[in-house]
Structures are given as C-alpha cells and as structure tokens.
Amino acid sequence: MPFTMYEMARNPDLQRRFREEVREAFLSNDGKVTYEMIMGLKYMDNVVKEVLRHYPPLPFLDRVCTPKAGEEGYSLKAFNMNFNVPANMPIYIPQQAIQMDPQHFKDSETFNPDRFLPENKHENNMNAYMPFGIGPHNCIGERFAMLQTKLGLLYFYRNHYVTVCDKTAEKIQLDPRAIIIQPVGGIHLNVVRDPLF
Ligand code: HEM
C-alpha cells in the first residue's frame, strides 16, 4: 500500500484515474463494499500489479537443485548454457532485477499500469513477471493478499489522496540488506483529506 501511494503521488494523473474508478465503483454499488465490487476495479488491479513489478515484497526466489534419480545434476544445455547445476546447489533467482529488466518490460523504469492491459501485454514478457513466485510452490496467499491490499486502498482513497512533500524521495532506494523489501529512509507523503462523495 505505501509503495502504491508513493507511485500515485509521483503520478498525479494516474492517481486521478485511480480515484475516479473508486468513486464510480462506490456510486454504482450504493456506497457499499463487496467482493464483486473490488473484483471489478480493473485499473486498481493493474496499478497494484505494476507496483508489485517495481517493488516485489520478496525480491528473490530460492530453489534447491533436486535431480532425477540416476542424474548427477541439472543440465542447462537445453537453454544454450554449458553448465550443469550440481545436486543440492541452492539457487537464488533475482526476481526484482528480472522484473525491472528492459529486455522483458518495455520502458521498464516507467510506472505504467496500462502495460497489463490485454492489448499491451505482448510488449512485455509476462513469463518474467513473478511477484508471487512461480511453479508448484508459488504463493498460496496471492488472492487473499491482492484482496486485502485493494480493500485497504479502497478505504483510504474514498476520503483521501496523497501528494509529494519536501521529504519524498525522487526515486525509492531499496535497502540492499532487507529480505522483505524496505525503502531506505521510509516513504514520506502529504495526505490530503478529500471525500469522494
Ligand atoms: C503482497 C503479498 C504477498 C507477496 C508478494 C507474496 C509473495 C510470495 C512469494 C514470492 C513466495 C515464494 C514463491 C516461490 O518460491 O515460487 C510466497 C510463498 C508463500 N506465501 Fe506469499 N506473498 C504474499 C502474501 C501472502 C499471504 C497473505 C499469505 C497467506 C495468507 C502467503 C502465504 C505464502 C505461503 C504459505 C508460501 C509458501 C508456498 C509454498 O512453498 O508452497 N503469502 N509468497
């Protein structure tokens, strides 16, 4: 949520669009919050997805090489690499770096929720997008986490928005020693009270 608010403060046009969607959702649902109403917030979904591309809370994945019986390791020949991953070798996948790589995401440094629109997806390599991990051990809490985050944002944005202040960083520096990502110096924003209806 704070990373979302940081990007919304930095991109006021996107924040206006974000709030407009929240306003319309409340008005067309008699001011009530329901599961279906949250699922209908398509722009919010893309904003949170883009936040998780820039700032995946867990910035790396880890695996251990468990070769098939009779094999000594896992050969990377099929991927044009002359390397045999030895049995039991721990592997760390720098998922945050992969998600910010311009090889995989067009204008990767730009905060652009619209990259997740169906018509734009082909410009990005969505196989490289893995904030909740990948494969049989991916995050079991993905849907709950998305719902909870959207719910918090919905209630906050119903009555408030954010702007940058003197202490807001130009660009967030991630603490290189943090296992769950942390912005160096925290996130500082102005909160403005402004009920939507
Ligand atoms: C935005 C919030 C969250 C993010 C970004 C996140 C991300 C991740 C990631 C990257 C993994 C490792 C997946 C892999 O190695 O392929 C993971 C695993 C896991 N997560 Fe989450 N998670 C979040 C919230 C939650 C919540 C709310 C729960 C529980 C209610 C949860 C439960 C788990 C569990 C149990 C695993 C281990 C799954 C396994 O090893 O089979 N996570 N999560």
Automatic annotation (TrEMBL):
Keyword Lipid metabolism: no
InterPro entries tied to this protein: Cyt_P450, Cyt_P450_CS, Cyt_P450_E_grp-IV, Cyt_P450_sf, Insect_CytP450_Detox
Source species of the chain: Ceratitis capitata (Mediterranean fruit fly)
Highest rank taxon of the organism: Eukaryota
Biological processes, Gene Ontology terms: insecticide catabolic process; response to DDT
Topological relation to the membrane, as annotated: Peripheral membrane protein
Entry protein name: (Mediterranean fruit fly) hypothetical protein
Family membership noted in the UniProt record: Belongs to the cytochrome P450 family.
GO CC terms, sorted: endoplasmic reticulum membrane
Alphabetic keyword roster: Endoplasmic reticulum, Heme, Iron, Membrane, Metal-binding, Microsome, Monooxygenase, Oxidoreductase
Cofactor: heme
Role according to the record: May be involved in the metabolism of insect hormones and in the breakdown of synthetic insecticides.
GO function terms (MF aspect): heme binding; iron ion binding; monooxygenase activity; oxidoreductase activity, acting on paired donors, with incorporation or reduction of molecular oxygen
Primary location: endoplasmic reticulum
PANTHER family per UniProt: CYTOCHROME P450, CYTOCHROME P450 6G1-RELATED
Record's subcellular location: Endoplasmic reticulum membrane; Microsome membrane
Residue ranges of coiled coil: none
Binding, heme: 139
Organism lineage: Eukaryota, Metazoa, Ecdysozoa, Arthropoda, Hexapoda
